[in-house]
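We modelled the chain as a single entity of 238 amino acids. Its sequence is:
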Amino acid sequence: MKNFKSQHFFFFVMLFFFNLSFGQNDNFYTKIQEKKIRGEQYWDSFKLYEEALENAEGSPYANPDFLPGRLYKGKESVSNIMFLRYNGMSDEIEVKPTEGTTQIQTIIKDPEIFAKVGDEMYMYVESENPDENGGYFKIVKDLQVYDLVKKVKITFKEAQFAKTSYDKNTPAQFITETTYFLTDDKGTFYELPNSKAKILKVMAKKKSEVKAFMQKGNIDITKENDLSRLVTYFNSLL
């Protein structure tokens, strides 16, 4: 990964209260913040209610299940196994509640900390400008010059009821928007548009080679595996 800025979960909750540290760096603390709200109040903050959540199509989560994961600083693990999931609506990594509670806990956002959720690795990027890229990104491919990362943004669209007999009801739904980027070791992001012609502009320094690779390999840039192959090839030319 670029240089961007077997105990159970109960132990990590204790970590929050006693400020324990893991890993070899004594100055680094693995942190968990506890939101002082219960699960149903959490969704109220988004003006979402239980009935809407149950009937909506889709999910606010990349994966609704909590998966085993760890926290890393660079390539060094700084936590034991914990159960995590990424919330694409709030842009937070949630920690599985302890037995007997519904209080939501999240990992403190820190650009030095990577979170592995199942087989997926997430990094946090700070941005002072709201118009610039910031928040959690999934690392799709870790490469020598440009990494391939993606930003998942999930929004909620309320149900629409038919106004006439010719119209149809539209159920409430969570809408997922995915954007891919190249990023270098300086933390610069280059958006990869959903167009071959525009991607060639991003990869202009090797335009002819990349164009030939697209044609020969029948690359479909709307498919993540194909896009990953393309970015891997582009890196090999640099």
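As a brief sanity check on the tokenised model: The longest helix spans residues 224-236. The chain has two domains: 9-192, 196-238.
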